Each structure stands twice: as C-alpha cells, then as structure tokens.
Amino acid sequence: MNKQLLKPITPLISLSRSRGYKPPGGIRYPGGITFYPRHPNHKDPEYTPTKLFRVEQIKSSKFHPWWEKKILEELKVDMFQSKVAIVKNIPEMNAKLWKVKHLIKVTPITFPYGEPKEEDIKYTKLRENGECIVTKTLQPNEKQLEALESFEKNPRKMDSETIKRDTRFKWNNAFTGGF
C-alpha cells in the first residue's frame, strides 16, 4: 500500500483568528476594553463622563429570563410602577445596565446651567433628552418696582372708571366726533 494514504490526515489550519490571538497596538481602557485604533496617531477626544443616567424601559420584560426581571426591579424600572429611573454612573450599575440593554434606553443626564443645589430641588425639571434644568422663580428688578410705585401714585393717571366712561362715550358717539 501507499504510505502516503496511511498517514493521518492533518486538520486544515483555520484561516480565521483563534480566540487567544490579540493583535499588537491596542489601547487598554479601564473595565477590560481594548481599543484598536484605525490610525497610529489616533488621539481620544476630551470627554468627562456624566454622574447620572436616565434609564427608561422601552420594552416589556415579559418572556425574558428571571434575572433580567430582577435587575429591572432593582433599578425600580417596571412597566407597572415607573418607566423612568435615575441611577449613578458607577461600574456596578453599568454592568447591570449592560445585561438589560435590549430592554432599556440609557440617556446621560447633563446640567447645562450648573448642578442644582439643595434649595433648588423643587425647581428642577428633567427632560427626555437628559437635560436637567433648574427654573427658579424670578425676582423683580428694584428699578421696575420703583417705576410701578411712581406710576400708581401719579395723579395724572387715569383710573378705570374714567377709562370706562370715555370708551363708552366713544362707542355710543362713533359718527359724531367721538374719534
């Protein structure tokens, strides 16, 4: 017999990358993420992460595993209770959000006019796009208050009775010279 036929057949070497292969030149980020830039002179843009996230449930947890339902209960995001929750941007919370990312919508909360203080909590409004806006009650200007008082005390000012009488006279005598 032919000795070539009796040799064990070697498996074909896979052309695809094996699981253990890691190409050189990756940038390692905290959290176990390695980024491989397209260009060698790649520089990350400056970005400061937000402190809070607005989490909204967009899909029902029905027919999903119990652990996903448990995570939604821990986040206090439930279709029956509340569809929106505010959570901290910490690694533990991000890991939970990652597990239910197909059921929720995560929006970073920004403060365009500065973060609210303790006395501003009553006047804050959180929009759907993640903007937290503080709307305080406006105080009148001192000059405007003085102008209002001088107008009220002006003796040449017409009171409401005089204005009513004058407009009624002009209405009744429209063609005889009321105007």
How would you characterize this protein structure?
This protein is α+β, with helices and mostly antiparallel strands. The chain has a domain at about 25-40 and about 45-110: Ribosomal protein L30/L7 (Ribosomal Protein L30, Chain: A). It has five helices and seven strands. The chain has helices at about 5, 65-75, 90-100, 140-155, 160-170; strands at about 25-30, 35, 50-55, 85-90, 105-110, 125, 130-135. The longest helix has 13 residues, at about 160-170. The mean pLDDT is about 80.
Tell me briefly what this model is.
The chain is of the alpha+beta class and 179 residues long. It has five helices and seven strands. The chain is elongated and about 100 Å long.
Present the secondary structure layout:
Blueprint: H1 3-6, E1 27-29, E2 33-35, E3 52-57, H2 66-74, E4 84-88, H3 91-99, E5 104-108, E6 124-126, E7 132-134, H4 142-153, H5 160-172
Antiparallel strand pairs: 1-2, 3-4, 3-5, 6-7
Order of helices and strands: HEEEHEHEEEHH
Mean pLDDT: 82
Helix content: 25-40%
Quick one: biggest sheet?
3 strands, antiparallel
Number of helices: 5
CATH superfamily of the domain at 27-38 and 47-110: Ribosomal protein L30/L7
Quaternary: single chain
What order do the strands of the largest sheet run in, or round the barrel if closed? 4-3-5
SS-based structural class? alpha+beta
Q: Which runs of at least 5 residues are low in confidence (pLDDT < 50)? A: none
- Radius of gyration over all CA atoms, rounded: 35 Å
Proper CATH architecture of the domain at 27-38 and 47-110: 2-Layer Sandwich
First-to-last CA distance: 128 Å
Q: In percent, how much strand structure appears in the residues? A: 15-25%
- Regarding CATH, which class of the domain at 27-38 and 47-110? Alpha Beta
Shape descriptor: elongated
CATH topology of the domain at 27-38 and 47-110: Ribosomal Protein L30, Chain: A
Report the strand count: 7
